[in-house]
Structure formats: C-alpha cells, structure tokens
Please model this.
Amino acid sequence: MLPSKDHRLNKEFVSPTVNKQAFEPPAVHSNLVKHLDHTAVSQRANLIMAEDTRQDKRASFSAITEHNTNGMARTSAVASSKSGASKKLVIKNFKDRPKLAENYTEDTWLKLRDAVGAIQNSTSIKYNLEELYQAVENLCSYKVSPTLYKQLRQVCEDHVQAQIKQFFLNMELTESLDNLSFLKRMNRCWQDHCRQTIMIRSIFLFLDRTYVLQNSLLPSIWDTGLELFRTHIVSDSAVQKRTVDGILEQIELERNGETVDRSLIRSLLGMLSDLQVYKDSFEERFLVETNRLYAAEGQRLTQERDVPEYLHHVAHRLEEENDRIMSYLDQSTQKPLISCVEKQLLGEHITAMLQKGLRILLDENRVAELALLYQLFSKVKGGLPTLLQFWRDYIKSFGGEIVCTPEKDKDMVQDLLDFKDKMDNVAQSCFTRSEGFINAMKEAFETFINKRPNKPAELIAKYVDSKLRAGNKEATEEELERILDKIMIIFRFIHGKDVFEAFYKKDLAKRLLVGKSASVDAEKSMLSKLKHECGAAFTSKLEGMFKDMELSKDIMIQFKQYIQNQSEPSNIELTVNILTMGYWPSYIPMEVHLPPEMVKLQEVFKLFYLGKHSGRKLQWQPTLGHAVLKAEFKEGKKELQVSLFQTLVLLMFNEGEEFSMEEIRAATGIEEEELRRTLQSLACGKARVLNKNPRGKDVEDGDRFNFNNDFKHKLFRIKINQIQMKETVEEQVSTTERVFQDRQYQIDAAVVRIMKMRKTLSHNLLVSELYNQLKFPVKPGDLKKRIESLIDRDYMERDKETPNQYHYVA
Model:
C-alpha cells in the first residue's frame, strides 16, 4: 500500500483509460512544480555571501534586485545612516560548479529503476514521488540525460518482453481461451501498459520536457511506450490475428442481433488506432468481411422480401452501421464502410428492385416508401438515373393505358387529371421536387397523350364544356378555377390544339345560344387561359362569339321598342342572336315549316335589322333555337322549355289528337334523324309529354304519337331541351372533318409561303421547314399529297433534271 501522500499523487497521475487521440499524457501537478521551484531557489540562496556592514541595528534597508546575464539574481542593499555613508552588498557566483557526490548517478538510477519496477509490477513505491522527480531533474542538470534515457528505455523494453513471454507462457491455456476471454485479457494488458507508461512519464517528465524535446529524432516516453507495445506484442502475428479475429467475431454477433461489450471493442480498436496498425491489421479485413456479409444478405433478401420491406431493412442496416462508427469504429472507416453497405444492399440490386416493386409502390401511392427509395438511391452511383428512367417508363405505360383504351374514353380526362395530381405529389413529396424528375414527367405525359391523335383534345374540350355548363353543381367558383388550371396543364401536352379549338368552339356556341353557360366569369377566365397559352390568334374567334352575344342584347332592346311602336303587337316574344359567320361553327342549313306567327315575326325583325344595317344578309339557323311553351294538363298548367324542333312537333297537337311519324315529318319539314331524336326526347325520356304507340325506347317507322294529358311533374317549368346540348355522331364527324380540312388549308398556305420566300428547295428541306412551322401533328404522306396538289394547281413545279427539287411558280 502506498503512503498517503504518494497515494494522492498516484491518483492524480494514473488514468485507467487512455484517450486514443492524445499521445501526450497530462502534465505534473502544479503543487509538485511549485515545490521543486522552491527547492531550487533555496539551494541557490545557500550560495549567497554577505559583507559585514557593522551598521546600526536601527538602520533601514531597501533591496534592489538586478538580473545578471547568467540568470542569477544579484541583490544590493543600500544602507542609510545618520552620517550619510553607504556600502553595496555584492553577491557573487561560485567560481567552480558544485560536484555530485560519488556514486550519486548509480545510486539515483537504482532508486529510479526500483520505482519503475514497482509501477510495472503494481506494487507500492518506496520513495516519495517528488523526491524521484527531483532526482531526475538533478541527473538531467548534470548531463546524464542520454544515459538516463537509454536506461529507462531498456528497462521498459525488458518489461514488455517479459510480458509477452508471460502472455504466451502457457500456450495451451491461451489457445483454450475463447475469443471473448482473449480479448478481455488483451485489453487488460493494454490498459495496464498505458497506466504504467503514464506513471513512469510523470516521474521522468523533466527528461521528457528537456532532453527528448531538444532531440527531434528521439520519441517521447509516451511514444516509446507505444512503440515497444506495438513492436513486441501487437506486431506478433499470432496475437494480432487472434485479436482481430475476436473483434470481427464480436461485430458479426452484434450484426446478427446479439448484445456485445461495446466498451471492450472500443478500447481494443482505440489500441490499434493509437499503435497506428488500425488500417493495415483491422480495417482491410473488416471491410472484406462486411462486403461478404452484405453481398450474401442482399442476394437472399431481395428474393425473400417485397421491395418496401427490403427498403426499410436497408435503411435500418445503414443506421446500425452509422451507430457502430459513432460507438467504436474509427471515423476514417465511415466512408468505405457505408459505401460498401450501399453497394452490396442497393447498388447491386437497383434494376431488380425497380422491376419488382416500383410499379406497386406507385400504383398504391406509398409515399413514405417512395421517399425512402429516392433517399437511398441518391446515395448509390447510377441509382437516380435508373430510377428516373423507370419513373418515365411507368408514366408512359400507365398513361398510355388511359389514353389508348376506347372503353375508358368516358372517364379519360378525369383519370388523366387524377394521374397528374398523383405524379405531382410523388415528385414533390418523394423526389424533393427534383428538376430532372419533373421534366421527365412532362416529357412522358407529352409522349403518351399524343399516342392517340385528336381524341384526347376532343375529350378535354368536352370535359371543359361539362364543367362550364349550367347545372354543374359539383364545384364552387374557386374549385372550378382550380379545375380549369389543371386542365390547362394537360392541354399543354397536346400537339393537335386545333382539334380542341374546334370542339371547344362548338360547345361554347351551344352554351351561349341555348343559355346553358354556368358563369360568364368562368367562361372569360377559360378564354384568358387559352389566350395566354396559345396566343391571341387562337382565341380571336372565341372572343368574337362573346362580342356577338353582347351586341345581340343591345339590338334586342332596340327591337322590343320597335315592336311596341307597331300597330299590331304580337303575343309572341321573339329573341334573336345575330352571329358573325366567321366566328361561329358552320351549321348545315335546314328549312323547317314554322307557324305563320313566327314567320311574320321573323319578317318584322328582318325589316328592322336591314333598315339599320344595309348591305347585310340574314340566314336563319333553326338548329339551336329554343322556346318556352305554355301547356295545360289534367294536373294543371305547365311551362315547357323546349327546342325549336320540339316546339314545332308539340304545336301540331293543338290541331289533332294523334299523328304518325311520317305525318309529323311532312308537317314540320324536320330532317328524319333529327325528327327521331326529337320525338324520342318527348315520348321516351323522363318527361313524357307525348305517348308513343307501340311503347319502346327507340322511334321506328309507323310509330304513332298522341298528347299525354295525364302528364305529371313536380316543377312548374320543365326543361326538355337538354337534347340540344347532346352531341350527335354526325356533329362529331363533321367537326373532325372540318379540322382536317382546315389543316389542309394551313399546310397549303405554309408550303406556298416557304416556296415564295426560298424560290427553290429540295423535298427534304421543305418538309423540315413545314414541321417547324405547323402547330399540329402531320404525317409525311399527307404533306406529300398537299405538295402534289399544289403542283397540279401550278403554285410550284418540279425541277426537270432533279425531281426531288421544287421551284416556286410566280
């Protein structure tokens, strides 16, 4: 047991744990240094010689201290007496340096060696630590430092060699130890060595701070201790192999879910790091084992688990390895270790994982797993580009199914909007709004939406019509505005925007003329969006339609005043919309037999209008005319809101009880197919104002119709003219044909414009120029036909020597 004073110092200088990054242990305690300084000063004070001054005992002295060049303090005392005489006190250095006592060096070294041996054997030290420190300082002061350093190194080396011999003294016992016990024994040996080295250095600190510091080639006492341990213990192949094997085994057990002693692993890896053998002895083997483990695990789990479960497993593994680095691995291992895990668990299985699971994740909208997928793939080389390609292919495939399946035409636009919302959410929430992924999505939408020419454009126009039509109670104004914004995004992807324009214009005309527009503000908002997207030329005709409706209102105010001034006012209220032919869709003229009262009113309006606007020609279009009829049933009076054709049919039943289809057709002059639709709406719909005999859903030749006097309805005004808003097959075909006809005119105009400017051009260059100028998709065969047509009409001609060359004909 150490004495109490020594025991205090022992507690100060011995540390059971070693900071693996700090090679230099703490300095000697300040009390010890202070004591040593005081001892040195007191020794020097013994050398002072004073003159006998024989002065009065009551004389006062003032001390003046000067610093001599050799570092010795020289003090002069100035004495003052009544007579005023004074003398200086001079202190001189020894002429000869004091000599050490005989055998002082040997005796002192024996004491120091005994102390070092006691530390190494963990026994009590016989001598006071301050005394030992002073002995080292004295030896160093008398140039014994080189010898002292060599002797100390030899003693330490002998002890380490003895340790390794004892370590393997009983080879059978060592080999019989399990790896964990061996690691604990190795760690104990290392901890003891560190504690001993720190204690020894605290005694020989003066040597370390003077002689060693002045000789840059000499390692410090601490570094010497590390070097000896590395050379004689850790560098032994058997010890090193057993140590590293044991550490790797513990790490593998932890990876398999077992609990291990992390502090033991941390201490041993710190030892390898301090001894500068961490990378060569441990890290290389550790990374090889890690690579092997995760390669096998990746192969097995990609087959056994579904993709979401596997992704969570990979994230968990990466979290574990990062925790391992924080707990006991060296920071230098982080990058190669994480790269190894990512490569084996992710990099080797990118394509297989995406083929197996991306479609499922996107179909089920599993946002959390998609975000994790993106996060993990962003760490792996080639991960994001591969994910981007699969994402693009998925959008093309899924969108292609929506667009190219005629059975889904009814819900195509809504499905496209929902799909776009879903993909936007994935790009924003999971793919961190990556510009590359957003651009890929736009490119994919543009590709698949134009796989089926014209139809998406037509259906988008009809979808807009359904949203802007009166009676659409699905959305508020704000929601309607959001829907229109989303539709415009889909509209941007369409190449054949002229098809959209044609169908949109046809439906807008119906909404305006039949009075079925839900909101003028919504209509103008949509018009503004189209103008912003496609330019003023695209919407000029649509804007003209709105102007016609506003002008017609002003004209009707003037016409009502004109009627009131007539001598024979009519009991029919007539409203006329004046339409500019170039703005509105073209309608097939149809001559029908109007009642005399209506014919008379038309003539009155014609006189009124042409009187104000000479040189104009009016052409009546009954197709989109509508009326309100007053009818009497057994239940009472009702008002029927009907189309002009329905009006002509119903008015016949004022003249008779029952009519055949042929009789109605002869009396009204309505075209056969239109008449079938009209009779079907009156006799087979929800509001059956007429009875059909025989009963049935379709109107056949020979069917007879009579007035349904028993008709009942909860409303006073009943709308039966919805049939006007429905598109017929003929309308759809004629609209499409009109678009194709307009395209031919645009192609002809573009060819003539190019040839007029270039005069002479080859076929390939002309086709290339046309593709640049035309805003709709067109096949090379169609272009060739239009070029042939223009050659036939003498707008251009072929070169006589080079048939592939064209010349403009002025």
About this structure: The first strand starts at residue 61 and ends at 67. Confidence is low (pLDDT under 50) at residues 1-84. Residues 566 and 604 are 10 Å apart (CA to CA). The two ends are 123 Å apart (CA to CA).
